[in-house]
Design a protein that fits this description.
Number of helices: 7
Distance between the termini: 64 Å
Strand content: 5-15%
Radius of gyration: 20 Å
Shape: globular
Number of strands: 4
Structural class: mainly alpha
Strand order of the largest sheet: 1-2
């Protein structure tokens, strides 16, 4: 959710910037753009696409998440020439670190979970287990390696909908915003052919 908000805000800001400066909105060139789609596919199947996410056991979901994070990190690293992609790389590495250190899923504490879903009955979650079909594993902060990198912050739209996010997610969101913002500042320079002097 926080990434989606960053993308929407970055797109709007980039378009407004381009319009203000009377420049075209042009996305910076990236290497191997197809890799980003391939990298996200395991996450989409394991956590977002309802017909398939039920088929993933906790172990296969963890494998899909780690594989996706590694591929996305590789894509971001290949494109580190762009400043925003450096922030994305840092965010992905932070998330990958805490995920791998805690068994392949993103840890979330019971306290954060109760803030996320205040009316969740106690019998619907078990410490040490994955929370539903999500990418989160419920772990007390005292049992979490690098707890400060876990899903411990809550984003709320002011309604009943809330989402937990990590420091790594914040870096990724800022990087995505910066990438789209930069697209509104691309200069187009007309290059005139040189006249030969005889």
């Amino acid at each position: 959710m926080i990434l989606l908000v960053a993308i929407v805000m970055g797109l709007l800001a980039g378009l407004a910037r381009a319009r203000y400066h009377r420049r075209p909105f042009v996305l910076p060139e990236l290497r191997l753009t197809w890799l980003a789609s391939v990298a996200f596919l395991p996450q989409w199947l394991a956590f977002f696409f309802a017909p398939t996410r039920r088929l993933f056991s906790d172990q296969t979901a963890a494998t899909a998440l780690v594989a996706s994070q590694i591929l996305l990190s590789g894509f971001a690293l290949l494109n580190r020439h762009h400043p925003a992609m450096k922030l994305l790389t840092v965010g992905l590495w932070l998330n990958l670190t805490v995920i791998v250190a805690n068994g392949g899923l993103m840890p979330i504490s019971p306290e954060t979970l109760k803030r996320l879903v205040p009316k969740l009955p106690d019998e619907e979650w078990i410490a040490g287990k994955r929370f539903g079909n999500t990418k989160d594993r419920i772990l007390p902060a005292s049992e979490t390696t690098f707890a400060w990198l876990s899903d411990r912050f809550i984003f709320s739209t002011g309604s009943a909908y809330r989402v937990a996010y990590s420091i790594g997610d914040l870096f990724i969101a800022i990087g995505a915003f910066g990438f789209l913002w930069s697209a509104g500042g691309v200069h187009t320079i007309a290059v005139e052919p040189h006249e030969s002097v005889n």
